[in-house]
Amino acid sequence: MSGRRPIPQRRRIFVACEGESEQSYVALLARLIESHHRRVHLDIVLVQPGGGDPLAIVERAVRLLQDRVRRLGRYHAHAVLLDCDKLGLVPERDRQIAPLAARHRLHLIWQEPCHEAVLLRHIKGCERLRPADTQRAGEELRRRCPDYRKGMPALRLMAFIGADGVRRAARGEPALAAFLSLVEFPVG
Predict the structure, then answer these.
(1) What does pTM read for this prediction?
(2) DSSP code of 170?
(3) 40-46 and 77-83: which strand pairing?
């Protein structure tokens, strides 16, 4: 008998990302979580093509989830990050999103109006900024963080987004806050 305790299994969390920028952001979250605990593993999956159509993104996320469950086993939880900027263009498709997500226990993390706007809300003094559209969000983010580029790696994102920034953004983003609670991110 060796006297060693078995290493507890990490809870696997499936996280589908609309694009590479979201993928880098979730990788940044994974690094920040890792510095606090090792109880979860974020399985980050890029959902392309989606073309920005929210229903297509959720449908693709469901297919990827089902494939991974078949190959790798069950997940503790499932989430998808997606932008709000295309909501309302095809209302009959939009109405299918919530029931589909509920059927597959997929936590929707809506980004209002887009990922760059959510990143902007991580920056001190920008928590309440709500750019009207994707273009303005990108312009404002680049004004505040001139080095920002879409799809930049997580390590580069860490230059202007840290744990305090994530907490700051979570205070105004209920879906993000719920996800952070799920993965035991220290928001307090």
Answers:
(1) 0.92
(2) H
(3) unpaired
Closest C-alpha to 74, from 102, 99, 104: 104
Q: Are 24 and 152 in contact (CB under 8 A)?
A: yes
Instruction: Determine the Cα–Cα distance for residues 120 and 6; give it in Å rounded to an integer.
Output: 42
Give phi and psi for 107, each to the nearest 5. Answer: -75, 120
Asked if residues 184 and 33 have their Cβ atoms less than 8 Å apart, the reply is yes
- Which uninterrupted H or E stretch holds 63? helix 54-72
Check residue 96 and give its pLDDT: 98
Hey, what amino acid is at 134? T
The residue behind tokens 């990143």 is 119
Burial class (CB in 10 A: 0-12, 13-18, 19+), 80: buried
Sheet strands side by side (includes 40-46): 40-46, 11-17, 77-83, 106-111
Amino acid 8: pLDDT: 75
Average pLDDT over residues 51-72: 94
Amino acid at 167: R
What are the CA-CA distances from residue 36 to residues 32, 54, 166 (Å)? 7, 33, 14
Asked whether 129 and 143 are in contact (CB, 8 A), the reply is no
User: What is the set of domains in the chain, with CATH numbers?
Assistant: 11-182 (3.40.50)
